[in-house]
Amino acid sequence: MKDIKWDISDIVLMPAEKSDINSRSECNVLKTFEHDLCLPLIASPMDTVISKENYKIFINNKIIPCIPRGLSKEYLIGNSYYFQSFGLCEIEKQLDTFEHSLRDNGAFYDYPNILIDMASAHMGKLIPLIEKIKKNWPNIVLMVGNVANPETFINLGNAGADYVRCSVGTGAGCTTAANVSINYPLGSLISECYELRKQYGLDTKIVADGGMRNYSDIIKALALGADYVMIGSIFNKTIESAGFNYLWKIRINNKIAETLWKWGFPIKKKYRGMSTKAVQRSWGKSKLVTAEGITKYQDVEYTLEQWAENFRDYLRSAMSYCNAKTLSDFIGKAQFVHITNTARERFMK
Fold first, then answer.
1. How many contiguous H segments (helices) and E segments (strands) does the chain have?
2. Is residue 267 situated within a structural domain?
3. Per the CB 3.0–4.6 Å rule, which of 5, 27, 166, 347 could disulfide with 185?
4. Which residue range forms the structural domain that includes residue 184?
5. In angstroms, what CA-CA distances link 163 with 17, 251, 266, 335?
6. In terms of Cα–Cα distance, which of 45, 192, 214 is closest to 206?
7. Integer angstrom CA distances of residue 76 from 35, 111, 255, 279
């Protein structure tokens, strides 16, 4: 029997034999991103998560927003604390334009951090494209993905990718694994990418992307070796998210929704995968392909500030148990054990 792969739900973290940390307040949960400090979190480039109206709220909460495709840069503030998304075809077609608009002197870029946003980053033509971009504009920070093969992660890293999104089919709005049968269990994928990266001496960042259901999932992804965790569905459930607001099936604007939610009314947010036909139409595609995503409606549960505060405290607690004062002491270094479904049921509430 071949080695069985496992999900992050199949493990729990084990505390250090002895921790020298007396209070979780001693643990630093921030890391440096583009000369600023941030949480190890990236907001997914989904049009029901990020918009021109709310992306600064993510920045203010030290979460890196990934701007969805099609959002004009004229709305964006002039800093480097976000990724701008482009499809593979957009990058290929506009490369000549980029050559005129991008400067490689390190002082300024129209697009300082770029995400090549694609369902499958296993396409062979992506590698020479990465090499060309990094050769001509070495100071650009380039994220690519998604991948579901540890060897592909290494190939993209060797080509020059700075960040690689890892996981296919696990997102809350994605049906690729369910219908196409393509997947690599996330726990094994993160862990193996982390070990291969050490073996090859790469600095490519691992971005665990898709299917995070709670704080625990995110913390375990970091413990296994993810440098960042990309989040969509969880952030969609914030009152500030870009998803359309609904009260009893009646669509309402953001200001009214926020007021009613504070008064205790049940507000729902529209959430959809980015391969749905509705998204394809919004991108102006005339020929629609079979969707590998779903649309659903989620209850608003918190503000982004509330969620981020809880996350910081839960992550600090996990780090204190594991005797890790910094993220560099925690990411990829925490001990874990595999558990049975019965063991999981005992503490899942």
1. 13, 16
2. no
3. 5
4. 8-240+303-347
5. 33, 37, 38, 24
6. 192
7. 18, 10, 21, 22
**Which CATH number goes with the domain that contains 337?**
3.20.20.70
The secondary structure of 227-277 as a DSSP string is SEEEESHHHHTBTTSSSPEEETTEEE-HHHHHHHHHTT---EEEEE-TTSH
Residue 294: inside a domain, yes or no?
A: no
pLDDT, tens only, 265-275:
999 999 987 55
User: Residue for token digits 């063991």?
Assistant: 343
pLDDT (tens digit, 9 = 90+) per residue, 46-57? 899 999 889 999
pLDDT digit string (tens) for 57-89? 999 999 999 988 876 555 455 556 888 888 887
Per-residue model confidence (pLDDT) at position 261 = 95
268 lies in some domain: no
Q: What distance, in Å, lies between the first and last C-alpha atoms of the chain?
A: 34
**Which two three-digit tokens encode residue 94?**
């506009």
> Do 173 and 232 meet the contact criterion of CB atoms below 8 Å apart?
yes
Number of domains comprising the chain: 1
Considering the domain boundaries, does residue 285 fall inside one?
no
Pairing of strands 141-147, 163-166: parallel
List pLDDT tens digits, range 91-109. Answer: 777 666 655 555 443 333 4
Reported pTM: 0.91
